[in-house]
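Audit log entry. Action: structure prediction of a protein-small molecule complex. Ligand: fe (ii) ion. The ligand was supplied as SMILES and no pocket hint was given, so placement is left entirely to the predictor. Protonation state taken as written. Sequence taken verbatim from the request; no trimming, no tag removal. Recorded inputs:
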Amino acid sequence: MHGPTEGVSEETDEANSAVKIVGGNVFVELDPDHPGFKDEGYRSRRNEIAKIAMEWNDMSMEERRNTKIPHAPYSEDEDAVWAAIMERIAPVHENYACKQYLDNAKKLGLPNDRIPQLQEVSETLQHMTGFRQEPVGGLVHPKTFHTALANKVFLSTQYIRHSSRPFYTPEPDVVHELVGHTAMLGVPEWAELNILFGEADMRTKSEAAITRLGSIYWYVLEFGACREKGIIKSVGPGLLSSFGEMEHACTGGEGCGNNEACVCDPKIQYLTPNFEEMETRPYDVTKYQPVLYVWDSFEEMYENTKDFITKWGTEKDPRKEVHQ
Ligand SMILES: [Fe+2]
């Protein structure tokens, strides 16, 4: 996950969390609007999970490669949240996920009845494309997120949304990371694009250019869509991890008519991909995306994005002055 431009689930709002250290203990500060704010058990699991990420962060890269990610504690209620989401999202994937996602989700074989541990999912992913998923406590600076990508590491949260609202999360959680991102990171072309983004970021110095790059990542690698035989399919994990947003995205906004989170006016706007435009187009992380860039095919998305991002900030980049 990367922030502040990260993570949409069934609905989102601006509630969030922050990891703090108080008296030597790791403590996750939840916004009073957070559904888990008053649940002591949930909060203590969140603290334990944040501690895993913090200790992981203190390790060298060498140590991380040789250490198994500690198991996150999940309650029965939380496994039930996962199961409910998996049941609800499966038919939506069948209709609206791109072929690459469906093929890889089968290979990945996430369990339906319990939240899988990051370690086990990461091991399977590593066999697919060499990518690993490693724990992170919460939102990180885009530079940190992208630098990890260059090293084939995808930083992922381990906590899950609160069980009182199974289809709502105010922050990107383990559902977003594992249901949305992992299967796509198992697609060689997608993994390659993630690495190229990481390398482009490492060539980028100014905060303004990093923001531009983050915006491209958002519109292509979080919320991209492509056509398959003329039908719009979800490619981006931001769509693939949320049945509500996936339906919304692929039906022009029609599929979310009864959903309070829908603020499209009145329908979603599909645009022809244009990188220069994406770089500065603002987006709202708290709502279903009202604008999507739709590629004619997955292959077109891959070829064009690869070409653009490989040149980013280099002598071959016609707009290198704003990309450095
Ligand atoms: Fe994401």
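Audit: result stored. The chain has one domain: 17-322. The pocket of fe (ii) ion is lined by residues 1, 6-7, 172, 176, 181, 222, 237-238 (CB under 6 Å).
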